[in-house]
Amino acid sequence: MLSAAVQILAFALALLGVLGTVVATLMPNWKVSINVWTSIMTPISQMQGLWMDCVWYSSGIFSCTMKNSVLSLPPHLQAARAGMVLSCVVALFGLCLATLGLKCTRWGGSHRAKGHTAIAAGGCFILASLLCLIPASWFTNEVITAFLTTDLPDSSKYQPGGALCITFISAGFLLAGGVIFCLSCPGKRTRRPDRASPANPDRFTLHPDERRRQGLQAEQLHSSPSKLPQTDIKDSYSLQEYV
């Protein structure tokens, strides 16, 4: 298993990725308009998110409208909603597993069990990063394609917003943390004592392999005939002749 410091670094990266994913899911600026007006009470910026559309006016007023109808949304927006929500859920579940799989914690079972738990947490983080990357890439492609191919005026065109940047960065953090946790697979069992005996805390119980090896050595020792040294055999012969 990797050292505790590397696992803590992976946990910190995954935590940043989870926080970034949650924030990006709730942010309204997945795509931002490029139009700018200077008259009073006219919008200077329009932005659209997964759950709401917002307008920023030159007077400082910020107005948002919720997207209540799911069926009226385009396919890439529906996919982005589902992917980001699933990514948040899977990443939070991965954080729970990573807490149990950390080497520096006391809970989670033996070192081998912690290794398997860390691998499961890494798999959750990698899956969460893919659930971020796929819908965010699709959404970005749709925005750029609409910007380049349509004949709409510049006042109606949109460009990728800051939420997409946060999504890609968070996906990178989740992917890095997941890879590190997946590399913390359990190695070969050592012959050190694994845990303390409940009856006597000062004594440690051995691994099953160690106990099996000691049992085989004891059976071989009892089954093999005892051999006397050469000097003892000569002494016994001389004693018989003397008698």
Automatic annotation (TrEMBL):
<feature type="transmembrane region" description="Helical">
    <location>
        <begin position="82"/>
        <end position="105"/>
    </location>
</feature>
<keyword id="KW-0796">Tight junction</keyword>
<dbReference type="GO" id="GO:0005923">
    <property type="term" value="C:bicellular tight junction"/>
</dbReference>
<dbReference type="GO" id="GO:0005886">
    <property type="term" value="C:plasma membrane"/>
</dbReference>
<feature type="compositionally biased region" description="Polar residues">
    <location>
        <begin position="220"/>
        <end position="229"/>
    </location>
</feature>
<keyword id="KW-0472">Membrane</keyword>
<keyword id="KW-1003">Cell membrane</keyword>
<feature type="transmembrane region" description="Helical">
    <location>
        <begin position="158"/>
        <end position="183"/>
    </location>
</feature>
<feature type="region of interest" description="Disordered">
    <location>
        <begin position="189"/>
        <end position="243"/>
    </location>
</feature>
<keyword id="KW-0965">Cell junction</keyword>
<comment type="similarity">
    <text>Belongs to the claudin family.</text>
</comment>
<feature type="compositionally biased region" description="Basic and acidic residues">
    <location>
        <begin position="204"/>
        <end position="213"/>
    </location>
</feature>
<dbReference type="InterPro" id="IPR017974">
    <property type="entry name" value="Claudin_CS"/>
</dbReference>
<feature type="transmembrane region" description="Helical">
    <location>
        <begin position="117"/>
        <end position="138"/>
    </location>
</feature>
<dbReference type="GO" id="GO:0005198">
    <property type="term" value="F:structural molecule activity"/>
</dbReference>
<dbReference type="Pfam" id="PF00822">
    <property type="entry name" value="PMP22_Claudin"/>
</dbReference>
<keyword id="KW-0732">Signal</keyword>
<dbReference type="InterPro" id="IPR004031">
    <property type="entry name" value="PMP22/EMP/MP20/Claudin"/>
</dbReference>
<dbReference type="InterPro" id="IPR006187">
    <property type="entry name" value="Claudin"/>
</dbReference>
<comment type="function">
    <text>Claudins function as major constituents of the tight junction complexes that regulate the permeability of epithelia.</text>
</comment>
<keyword id="KW-1133">Transmembrane helix</keyword>
<protein>
    <recommendedName>
        <fullName>Claudin</fullName>
    </recommendedName>
</protein>
<feature type="signal peptide">
    <location>
        <begin position="1"/>
        <end position="24"/>
    </location>
</feature>
<keyword id="KW-0812">Transmembrane</keyword>
